[in-house]
Amino acid sequence: MMNATELESKARWVWRETLKLHALCQETRIASSLSCAEILVALYYGGVLRFDPKEPLWEGRDRFVISKGHGSISFYPILADLGFFDPAELQRPGLPGALLKAIPDPHIPGYETVNGSLGHGIGVAAGMALGLKAKKSGSAVFVLAGDGELYEGAMWEGVMFAGHQRLSNLCVIVDNNRQCMLDYCRNVLDLSPLGAKFEAFGWEALEVDGHDLGALLPALESAKRLGRKKPLVIIANTIKGRGVPNLEGQPLCHIFNVKADDVAKLVREESR
Amino acid sequence: MNTMRDVFISALCDRMADTDSVFFLSADLGAPALDRLRQQHPERFINVGIAEQSCINTATGLALEGFNTYAYGIAPFISMRCLEQCRVNLALTNVVRPLNVTMLSLGSGLSYDISGPSHHCLEDISLMRTLPGIEIYSPSTLGQARALCARTLETSAPRYIRLDGKPCPETLGGGAPDFDKGFEVVREGTGPTIVATGYMVRTALAAAELLKNDVSVRVVDVFRLDHLDDDAFCDAVSGGGGLLTLEEAFVGCGGLDAFVNQSLAAKGLRLTLRHMGMPRSYEYSNGDRHHLHKANGIDADSIAQAVSSL
Predict the structure, then answer these.
(1) How far is CA A107 from CA A28, B94, B97, in A?
(2) What distance in Å separates the CA atoms of residue A179 and residue B40, rounded to the nearest whole number?
(3) pLDDT exceeding 90 applies to what percent of chain A?
């Protein structure tokens, strides 16, 4: 497990690597991949998840379901770094025969489910959590969901189901960047108060700064605390396109690209 | 007479005593046999509520954890309300991570006759056929339903099983179904062939009986709709006369008719063809199944007439 300084440094590395991937494959969704970088670092380097890169489907692993597929390109460098696949794959996203696509799929070791279509993660993860309970497994199920995909009704069917079944081994992390594709969520369909909505369905809700590793870690660790009775949602407030001036604060940043030259400049400046 | 759903669920309930790998999910749909199952195996029965998307998603998650999972719902809803979940979480996922999930779709075709068109299910064969990797079964008898239950316990796949809602006979004269072959000849004949599926096999047999003094009609029951032994099928239907397909589904939309055409084309077998089923419009008029069949030209008399003019 890493200390706080090492975690911060790893998060910056993930930010740079994600931008470099985007420079190589402009079809990747960069803004929503940057909002969840610290969440992923906390889960994989902060000692939260149990995993085995050499045996990605190891029975004793904690399950990590990525629901917001497009916005998880920042997971690629992490998986490569941990040994889930050859880091050389990071140099050829989207090329014929390459492992990594603009939208991930479960052929990539470390991805559990199909995720390009939004709104599936909570329901499928609830089934996994139920199955693990039936097997009397100590493994937990974590889900990374976007706030925008909570517009899909099937997500709330899953929320209702998990609450009723008291799936205390389930934790949903909402990458709450408060933007969907065309606008801020508050202008499209306001999702607030998000935590109260989950609580009304029988969940425990926590709200944290999703870029603050010091706040994220205890919240994520609490998901695995023994004796919990309810599923947990962690609403991680984030910034879409974080750290990239042309993306932050742009209503349309989901579909904005950062050109290779700009990526090089950003990475150079950040590395100083 | 018993129903397919009760025979299937009853057989499953008996086998659940010997295995802890089964979960049965219902989208708030019951059955007498299900009352026994949920009493005897309360920890393995879950009513997910009137929520077919949740039913398929939950089934997927359980299957990813190694469980053999059944998702039971009313035909038009367990096939179409959650078609996206079937595509992404069953068909697409199964390519990478094999899943054992059986959709039990109750009320095929016009089973829910007087409930009207929201409950009629005339699209499911066509839609499910477009999803690679989903096995599709359309039994015509209790014996086939029972054999299908055994298959779901002995093999692993995502499957769609189309169960008729009304009581049906134990057998129509065929033997144990061979699911690798996908069909059986239930009435031998030397003239034209009626190829039918599900409930309509009985209508086909009735039409053949009406014509017995004039023409010797062969009746073929196709009980699997994603896979057919083309050699055996073409051999079975090539002995004289034309071929008429009959389904309680929209005709000309990629259902049994297209499935049979594909098999004939694969073997280069040229026959005079006619496709019969529900015309491509929704049936709002009232009346029981027999009435609806007559009104739409797929009752035994109409079929007999069509066969004799092939």
Answers:
(1) 17, 11, 9
(2) 48
(3) 96
CATH of residue A148's domain is 3.40.50.970
How many CB atoms are located within 10 Å of the residue B101 CB? 30
Give the minimum alpha-carbon distance from A262 to chain B in angstroms, rounded to a whole number: 36
In sequence order, which residues have a C-beta less than 8 Å from that of residue A22 and are 6 or more positions away? A28, A30, A33, A73, A257, A258, A263
Residue indicated by tokens 């790998």: B21
Looking at B106-154, list the stretches that DSSP marks H as alpha helix, in order from N- to C-terminal side: 124-129, 142-154
State residue B156's pLDDT score. Answer: 98
DSSP state of B89: I
Residue of A242, A172, A241 lying closest to A207 (CA atoms): A172
Distance CA B223, CA A106 (A): 33
DSSP state of A90: G
Q: Which CATH class is domain B4-163?
A: alpha beta
Do residues B150 and B9 make contact, with C-beta atoms less than 8 angstroms apart?
no
Q: What is the pLDDT of residues A61-108, one digit of tens each?
A: 999 999 999 999 999 999 999 999 999 999 999 999 999 999 999 999
Q: What is the mean pLDDT of each run of 10 residues along chain B (310 residues)?
A: 96 96 98 96 98 98 98 98 98 98 98 97 98 98 98 98 97 94 97 98 98 97 98 94 97 98 97 97 96 98 96
CATH for B183-308 is: 3.40.50.920
- Considering only CB atoms, B53 lies closest to which of A114, A130, A154, namely A154
In chain A, residues with a C-beta closer than 8 Å to the C-beta of B97 are: 106
Pairwise CA distance, residues B85 & B91, whole Å: 9
What does the mean pLDDT of chain A come to?
Answer: 96
Put simply, the answer to whether A123 touches B96 (Cβ < 8 Å) is no
Whether the domain at B4-163 and the domain at B183-308 fall into the same CATH topology: yes
Q: What is the pLDDT of residue A159?
A: 98
Structural domain that includes position A238: 4-271
> What's the rounded mean pLDDT across residues A238-267?
94
Q: Do A114 and B89 touch (CB under 8 A)?
A: yes
Domain edges within chain B:
4-163, 183-308
Task: Say how many Å lie between the first and final Cα of chain B, rounded.
Answer: 34
Q: Distance (Å, rounded) from C-alpha B229 to C-alpha A180? A: 49
Q: Which of B44, B61, B88 sits opposite A114 (nearest CB)?
A: B88
pLDDT at A272: 73
Q: Which of B194, B221, B216, B170 is nearest to B300 (CA)?
A: B194
Best of A66, A113, A143 to mutate (most B CBs within 10 Å, chain B): A113
**What is the pairing mode between strands B45-47 and B243-250?**
unpaired
Chain B residues within 8 A of A124 when measuring between CB atoms:
57-58, 60-61, 64, 89
Q: How many domains does chain A have?
A: 1
User: Do residues B249 and B126 make contact, with C-beta atoms less than 8 angstroms apart?
Assistant: yes
B249 to chain A, minimum CA–CA distance in Å?
28
- C-alpha–C-alpha distance, residues A37 and A74, integer Å: 6
ipTM value for the complex: 0.97
pLDDT value, residue A225: 87
Phi-psi region of B153 (alpha: psi -120 to 50; beta: other; left: phi over 0): alpha
